Amino acid sequence: MPTPPRPLDATLHGVVDYNMGAFLIAAFPKLAGIQGTRSARQIRLAGAIHAGYSALTNYPLGVVKALPYKAHLGLDAAGAIALAATPFVTGQYRRGTRQWLPHVALCVAELSSLLITDPTGRGDYHGNVEAVRQANAIDPGSKLRNGGPAVRRSAAA
Amino acid sequence: MRANVWSGRNGVQVENVPDPTLLNDRDAIVKISSTAICGSDLHLYDGYVPTMKRGDILGHEFMGEVVETGRGVDNLAVGDRVVVPFPIACGNCWSCKHELYSVCENSNPNAGIAEKMFGHPTAGIFGYSHITGGYAGGQAEYARVPYADVGPFKIEDDLTDEQVLFLSDIFPTGYMGAEFCQITGGETIAVFGAGPVGQFAIASAVMLGAERVIAIDEYDYRLQMATARAGATDAINFSENADVVEQLKELTGGRGPDAVIDAVGMEAVSGHGVVHAVDRVKQAARIESDRGAALRDAIMACRPGGIVSVIGVYGGLMDKFPTGAFMNKGLTLRSGQCHVQRYIKPLYERIRKGDIDPSFVVTHRLELGHAPDGYETFKHKQDNCVKVVLKP
Amino acid sequence: MRRVATITVLGAREEVQRLWRELAAERGADPPVSFMTAPGDRGTEIRVEVPDAPSNAVGQAVTKLSGSDPLAKAKDELRRFKQLFETGVIARSDGTPEGHAVERQLKQRPAQPLEQPEREKAGV
Description:
The complex is a heterotrimer. Chain B is an alpha/beta fold.
């Protein structure tokens, strides 16, 4: 019984991870008008950490496939909430909307993307290979190799 | 009856649906003995083809026994064993009379939808979205076949289902792809994609007299089938080295292949990871409906003055088509959904003579109830899967 | 602005005109129609003149979406006529059992066989 489709599979999630990481480090602080403030440093750090553990995740775009995908998703959620909480914990929220709103907005964006992410991590494979092997009347391997050429060269029609 | 229906993106389910009945005098009802999952079904499964509705019966490769015929069908009798071509063609319009069956002018009752997408309507197709008419497909126990006096082809000897089933689609499709290359003997043909259609394109190029046939794919097991069974003389695995154009030049003394067959279509995978990721994001955001990585490489790789034969299925628009390379190298681009009715008899004769045994592509034979797992296994290339046949 | 719906039918002009007249009774209102022999072996071109579209964009959108646009309806009729003349039957699918109809373009049935009451409703 297929679950409601979650469009963001592991590969796409990886694309988003790296893009968001780069975006947070490079362009976001300027666009949000918080260049040079504590908030900018916090968000840049969040972006760098995110890209960092993404590269260590066991999913199609990971460089060193060490961290399990589900753990990665857990870090995504925890990190998003931590980022949202930071301005309130440090008290900087009193210095104006721009010192907490970007954090909360990014947290909401991250949690939303997690809601549409497929958590199985092997791309989005959800079939039962064992059932297929049992039900299959054929040995696939032998069809690949045995039997010789199934076609005769250049026979006239 | 039981049928495999589309249940949303990445979902198919086997459900109970009404049995088909005759709607027209030229219809027939076929009791299906074997059917298959096609690579183009995966585009429906992956959600890349618009106008799918929950409950649509999928499947356009099927064969079986005639159990009922309309009054206008004289050439078939109850009990006849038939293979049914996937394009639904009336046989009477100008296109059909010129053997262009897959662009029949009459068989698509949703011609208006197709016209908006392609400029003109094309033929109806079994089980392939409402753009092609919204016809129920053949991954089921029974199917209604319109224009049964034109389409279904009678099998009158002992060949097994798996030896003739692929006359419905993939064997003629591969053959048409190879025929477009105008092989006269001695050519080098490159085939992008070693899935079932690619395997038949390779085998057909061999049958037509090509001297070298190069198979290109990212899965070793499919390349193995291409060389051991389909007759390919060389294989390129682009996941090891993404520069296919360069490797093809090396294999051909710098000339490039005389013709290139694109048996990949709109879900192409590029060996260059970044290009592939970008294409996938664009496709997911529906900015670009078709991933054209294989077609781009085909155009760049083909020798000047050569032919690019496109039988992979595309649906909409791709980004960055190499118009400069296409024009300046003087390439010929030929394409089309296969005009199966044109090829089915001559290719059946070839099977009977022993020139080819099409059953070599079948790696999985499953009962219809296993269709959902079959789709997943086929889509993700698990368990050495090349072609899945379903038995209702 | 004059709008024309057109189609080419594979047949000699006299035969095409004859069938068109025979079916005129069923059709009811008879719009201005012209028949012309197409080049080569392509048959006969039929052109039907259609009332103007509403002059504003909103009106046009409404008629198009509600399926009452006279141009779309004229094209439907021409397609059905061509099918009847060339093949003897109207193309029916499970998604569109009545044959080509612009109202159906947005409201397709699922592509699976019809039950008896649905068949009766579709006029099969």
